[in-house]
Design a protein that fits this description.
Blueprint lengths: L6 E2 L2 E2 H10 L5 E6 L3 H8 L8 E6 L5 H4 L12 E5 L3 E3 L3 H10 L4 E11 L4 E5 L2 E6 L3 E14 L14 H10 L4 E5 L4 E3 L3 H10 L2
Parallel strand pairs: 3-4, 7-11
Antiparallel strand pairs: 1-2, 5-10, 6-12, 7-10, 8-9
Length: about 210
């Protein structure tokens, strides 16, 4: 089963993502696929049964989290477009994200979220064999990339056609070329279901 079709409460993960975006007025979708892509296309078809319009781009090889965007150069006519991973479930206001991006005249906007993790062990600082300090179960408070973005169409020119590229590489490439990359902080629910363990925990505790 491709990740996009893994069921969450009897509904494919990707359907939840599409529904969350659709309620903010987005109607046109392009799905970039590789693994078991036919199953995804057979399930969603042209999107009519889901109240949206869906087109497909199929990778001939795995292209990473950003490489497939190089196949979209002639498919996206709008100046700005929303990008999200299929394994990210969020209640973020996608319309506010897009408006923020346009208002700030950004090339790329990253939806970011505060994330606090706790180490289950005492963290010890040593010099040689001498213990300098110990902190019991320290907390790490960071700002993370949520896997949700808005990009200007012209960002695609920084990708080489059909070449593997991860999103963090594209972000750094844009920054290196002095493009305006900004952060959109949000506080709505957000779940990363990218691994079996994360998926298991979500299924266990979601209601």
């Amino acid at each position: 089963v491709p990740k996009a079709l893994i069921n969450i409460k009897k509904v494919p993960m990707l359907s939840i993502v599409i529904d969350n975006i659709k309620k903010f007025g987005f109607k046109n979708y392009i799905l970039t696929t590789f693994y078991k892509s036919k199953k995804i296309k057979d399930y969603y078809k042209n999107g009519k049964n889901f109240g949206v319009n869906i087109k497909y781009i199929k990778e001939s090889k795995p292209l990473g989290t950003a490489g497939s965007l190089s196949l979209l150069k002639n498919n996206i006519k709008q100046q700005n477009f929303l990008l999200t991973n299929c394994d990210v479930l969020s209640e973020i206001n996608y319309r506010s994200l897009l408006d923020f991006h346009i208002k700030n005249k950004a090339d790329l906007t990253i939806a970011v979220k505060r994330y606090i993790s706790q180490n289950n062990y005492g963290e010890i600082s040593i010099k040689g064999v001498r213990v300098k300090s110990i902190v019991e179960k320290p907390k790490n408070d960071i700002i993370i990339n949520s896997g949700i973005y808005v990009l200007k169409n012209k960002c695609l020119k920084f990708l080489k056609y059909n070449q593997h590229r991860d999103m963090n590489e594209l972000i750094m490439l844009l920054i290196k070329n002095k493009k305006k990359v900004i952060a959109f902080p949000f506080y709505d629910d957000w779940f990363d279901l990218g691994t079996k363990e994360q998926l298991r925990i979500y299924k266990k505790y979601s209601v």
